[in-house]
């Protein structure tokens, strides 16, 4: 039996455990308490005030929850009829996650309910063992009042009768969504700190959530979240609009630094790629592909697209793409054919693509892609995120003027702004200004973004390595799209290509009967590459001086990477 990849991910990279911290609710005079939060403005005030306090980590998870294993945790089941708003005729209701096993985080949950005065009433969702079924040998009477690990939003998708899980928040600042036509797959995160550096990554946590009670006829629901970590605090607002084809989540954030991070990554996404195009799986696992996403897509202009197909290396790999104007990026599950995965349990063909679209293009930064070897398909081994310019991601805390990147008449349209923290004199009562503000939309849908529907796209690739090391590595890349289908065989497009640490010695285009184009390549290593470095490839098809395909990128290992797979794949140690 394959590992159930639908189970909550072990949210960790390179074995770094997710940090956990206790939500501090004590307040000083005139301070905003959790119960006082009513809207984004009061939440931002709370985050500002908490940023002036020292960070306090959480106590350890109490027993017996701390000793639970996977099988123990799976014996705990939520009672759907106990959900918040379940019986009130509303389009959404809330179910909570139990703490235990790897779900060590403690979060506080509140609802924001309407009142005659117009101001929402905040009401705490208390932990109650009556909300759960504990299968033997677990005993509800032995469960301490441990609090919540997270929550999920449940309800029917438009014009569908059955209620389904739509969005969940559990573990650090992770959240996952899906459309009605997909299932859970890749995840989003609120923020990443010091990721992919030669030091331990810092995981900020969502410590408290306020979920606004929707109207009976509403098609959306709003969520507020308080973020906390040793380096910063944050106020987040999410607005979920579920759909059958596309589910959208609008995100707005104010971030306040306690201590300026060396590296701060916006809109981080995480996913999993074990094997697929270009890499065979273990010999005793017959599935042709195992992944939640098969590539990173970046939009840098109205008709400018870059595609980076994944290639799992046997070591941690970080690649960076400079972007002058970021229109969007995402981890895409492009191949939707069932036979590409042949997995009736995991249904990787139904995993969603996750797409980040800034409210206005983010300027002068870079997209970074982290690829880890990964032990098995139950652990995410991919991350992609936006790194703003250095002056934005790490503003000078001693400065007293607003950073020029802030949206203003001089810099209109930017949806990410860095604001230098102003040091208040002793005795000042004004809270600090946000160190960073940004807004974007994260979408969950099958396949590619709808706007990427003209240029040719790389739909399949294969890699054939020769037995003789002196011969070239052969690659085939299939590209398909409306523009390419309109090109006759007698007028093929030209190939614009580049290779780093290698050379492209053969190039040939072949048109299929369907109008797709197959690019045949021969790749050799550069003279100064003895096989220890992958060859970085970049390719694009051009016709009449205009691009007719996305820019295809790939990190080609000279030799087949070797991995030690667990027994669940090999059926042997």
TrEMBL record:
Q: Name one GO cellular component term.
A: outer membrane-bounded periplasmic space
Pathway(s) the chain acts in: Glycan metabolism; osmoregulated periplasmic glucan (OPG) biosynthesis
Signal peptide per UniProt:
1-31
Q: Which GO terms describe its biological process?
A: beta-glucan biosynthetic process
Checking Pfam families in the record gives: MdoG
Subcellular location(s) of the protein? Periplasm
What keywords sit in the KW lines? Periplasm, Signal
Region annotation Disordered: where it falls in the sequence: 391-414
Q: Which SUPFAM superfamilies match?
A: E set domains, Galactose mutarotase-like
Tell me the ranges covered by the Glucan biosynthesis periplasmic MdoG C-terminal domain, including all copies.
39-393, 433-554
- InterPro entries from the UniProt entry: Gal_mutarotase_sf_dom, GH-type_carb-bd, Glucan_biosyn_MdoG/MdoD, Glucan_biosyn_MdoG_C, Ig-like_fold, Ig_E-set
- Which molecular-function annotations from GO does this UniProt entry contain? carbohydrate binding; catalytic activity
Instruction: Give start-end positions of Polar residues composition bias.
Output: 395-405
User: Is-annotated flag, keyword Secreted?
Assistant: no
Q: Output the PANTHER family linked to this UniProt entry.
A: GLUCANS BIOSYNTHESIS PROTEIN, GLUCANS BIOSYNTHESIS PROTEIN G
| Entry similarity comment | Belongs to the OpgD/OpgG family.
Supply the name of the protein: Periplasmic glucans biosynthesis protein MdoG [Precursor]
- Organism from which the protein derives: Rhodopirellula baltica (strain DSM 10527 / NCIMB 13988 / SH1)
Primary gene name: mdoG
């Amino acid at each position: 039996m394959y590992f159930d990849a639908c189970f909550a991910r072990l949210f960790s990279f390179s074995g770094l455990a997710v940090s956990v911290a206790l939500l501090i609710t004590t307040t000083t005079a005139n301070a905003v308490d959790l119960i006082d939060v009513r809207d984004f403005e009061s939440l931002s005030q709370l985050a500002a005030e908490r940023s002036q306090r020292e960070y306090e980590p959480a106590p350890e998870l109490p027993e017996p929850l701390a000793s639970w294993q996977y099988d123990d945790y799976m014996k705990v089941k939520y009672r759907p009829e106990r959900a918040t708003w379940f019986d009130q005729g509303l389009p959404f209701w809330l179910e909570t996650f139990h703490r235990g096993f790897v779900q060590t985080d403690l979060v506080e949950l509140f609802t924001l309910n309407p009142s005659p005065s117009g101001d929402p009433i905040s009401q705490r969702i208390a932990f109650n063992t009556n909300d759960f079924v504990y299968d033997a040998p677990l005993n509800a009477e032995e469960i301490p009042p441990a609090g919540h690990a997270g929550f999920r939003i449940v309800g029917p998708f438009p014009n569908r009768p059955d209620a389904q899980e739509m969005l969940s928040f559990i573990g650090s600042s992770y959240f996952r969504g899906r459309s009605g036509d997909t299932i859970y797959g890749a995840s989003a995160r609120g923020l990443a700190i010091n990721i992919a550096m030669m030091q331990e990554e810092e995981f900020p946590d969502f410590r408290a959530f306020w979920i606004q009670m929707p109207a009976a006829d509403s098609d959306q629901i709003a969520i507020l979240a308080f973020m906390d970590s040793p380096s910063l605090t944050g106020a987040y607002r999410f607005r979920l609009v579920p759909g059958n084809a596309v589910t959208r989540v609008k995100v707005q954030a104010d971030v306040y630094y306690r201590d300026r991070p060396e590296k701060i990554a916006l809109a981080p996404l995480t996913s999993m790629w074990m094997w697929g195009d270009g890499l065979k799986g273990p010999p005793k696992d017959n599935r042709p592909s195992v992944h939640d996403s098969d590539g990173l897509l970046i939009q840098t202009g109205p008709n400018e697209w870059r595609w980076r197909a994944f290639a799992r290396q046997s070591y941690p790999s970080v690649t960076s793409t400079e972007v002058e104007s970021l229109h969007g990026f995402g981890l895409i599950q492009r191949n939707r054919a069932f036979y590409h995965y042949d997995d009736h349990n995991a249904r990787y063909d139904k995993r969603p693509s996750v797409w980040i679209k800034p409210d206005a293009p983010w300027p002068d930064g870079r997209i970074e892609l982290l690829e880890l070897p990964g032990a098995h398909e139950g652990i995410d081994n991919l991350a992609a995120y936006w790194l703003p310019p250095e002056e934005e991601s790490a503003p000078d805390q001693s400065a007293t003027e607003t950073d020029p990147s802030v949206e203003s008449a001089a810099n209109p349209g930017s949806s990410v702004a860095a604001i230098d923290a102003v040091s208040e004199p002793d005795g000042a009562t004004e809270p600090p200004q946000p160190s960073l503000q940004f807004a974007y939309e994260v979408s969950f849908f099958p396949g590619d973004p709808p706007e990427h529907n003209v240029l040719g796209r790389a739909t399949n690739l294969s890699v054939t390595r020769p037995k003789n090391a002196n011969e070239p590595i052969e690659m085939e890349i299939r590209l398909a799209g409306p523009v390419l289908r309109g090109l006759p065989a007698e007028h093929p497009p030209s190939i614009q290509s580049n290779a780093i640490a290698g050379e492209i010695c053969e190039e040939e285009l072949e048109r299929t009967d369907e109008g797709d184009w197959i690019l045949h390549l021969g790749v050799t290593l550069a003279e100064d590459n003895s096989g220890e470095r992958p060859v970085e490839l970049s390719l694009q098809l051009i016709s009449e001086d205009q691009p007719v395909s996305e820019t295809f990128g790939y990190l080609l290992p000279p030799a087949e990477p070797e991995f030690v797979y667990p027994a669940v794949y090999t059926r042997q140690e």
